[in-house]
Design brief:
This protein is mainly β. The protein has two domains: 40 residues; 177 residues. The chain has two helices and twelve strands, in the order H-E-E-E-E-E-E-E-E-E-E-E-E-H. A hairpin with a 2-residue loop joins strand 4 and strand 5. The protein is globular and about 40 Å long.
Length: 217
Amino acid sequence: MRLQAASILMAAAVFAAPAMADPVEVEMVGSVDFGGVNVGQWANAGSGDPVVMKFQVDSTNFVDSAMFPVRGYEIIPSSFSLSIDGNTAGMAAAQPFGAPYFVLRDNDPVADGFFLGKNIDGFPNGVATDEAAQISDTFDALFSVGYEGTRLSSLDILDAVGTYDFAGLSSFNWGLQDGSFQPMGFIFDQWTIEVVPAPAGVLALAPLGLAAVRRRR
């Protein structure tokens, strides 16, 4: 009876758990294009060295602009990483202007695009990393791309899932910002937006629990 009761409770817990949106992961893969920095773990990085930046957002956690056709998805701070030549930094614990966003632009005004920003109504001003800089306290990670106006069909990030490259690209900027200077720029090979599936083990609990109940009967 104890096994039966435990199995029923486990199955009930699985089915009673609140539905949660799958996180969406954004990843940029490329290399250093120009410049260099003189401090910290990235001081020896130079042209051609590999660069990977990635982070996650919750597809249900967003803010729409009241002024522009843009939507900002709040970046999950612990998911952010920027690796340059194998040396990795995370996101600063405190963002200077509030929550960091991955922003989608749909027909704004005739172009579609994406950018990292400290707010959704400003310009692509990046997000603060936890890597110490020379002028500012830390380096900002910049990323913005513009595509022809038919690239996005909506501001829903789930509609934007896919692989992006230079096809239809009208503008881009990816790099590091220190104060008013951009000491290092990157060029991407491609970048992706993809849904991260829920752990299979969690979903597997339900059939296992129900099977135990059936066996006891």
